[in-house]
Amino acid sequence: MMHFLRDGLTLALCCFLIATGASAIPAQAQAPQVAGRWQCEYATRNIYRTDAHAVHYQAFINVVPDGTFQAQGILRNMGGFQAQGRWQVQQEQGRWAFAAYGQMASQAWGITGFAFDSFVVSASQMQMSIQDAASGHEIASRCTRAG
User: Fold this and answer.
1) How far, in Å, CA of 117 to CA of 100, rounded?
2) What is the pLDDT along the chain (147 residues), one digit of tens a residue?
3) CATH code assigned to 9-145
4) Any idea where the domains of the chain sit in the sequence?
5) Which of 61, 89, 129, 134 could bridge across to 17 with cysteines, CB 3.0–4.6 Å?
6) In a 10 Å sphere around its CB, with 0-12 CB exposed, 13-18 middle and 19+ buried, how is residue 26 labelled?
7) For residues 19 and 129, is the Cβ–Cβ distance under 8 A?
């Protein structure tokens, strides 16, 4: 059973990741092994435009060694979803970047694209924080290995 945080999560998650310097994490020598089950949170928003599209979800993501994933989670204030697709890990700017892309099915949005991006911090943690001061767009994610 998933346990979810309350509504202030998007701001708290963004601020936490920015404050901890998630983007300053050193790279590992070999590509990390990310296959397994992860409990993740993902949030986007624009700090200048309240009418801009914002997304917040929490999910369990099963990362399969064959390059596929399945996810099940909750879109904030919109109900559950399921997603599946492909994942990869590659080096970006001296760090290992994890990316999962595919399709998501939910009652709120029907069938649509699914995206999750983060940086591998350790064998049990991923996190990312990106903020573009000019546009006001922020993206934050974090995961812990669920077992």
Assistant:
1) 7
2) 333 333 344 444 444 444 444 444 444 468 899 999 999 999 988 888 877 778 889 999 999 999 999 999 998 878 899 999 999 999 998 999 999 999 999 988 899 999 999 999 999 999 999 898 888 889 999 999 997
3) 2.40.128
4) 9-145
5) 129
6) exposed
7) no
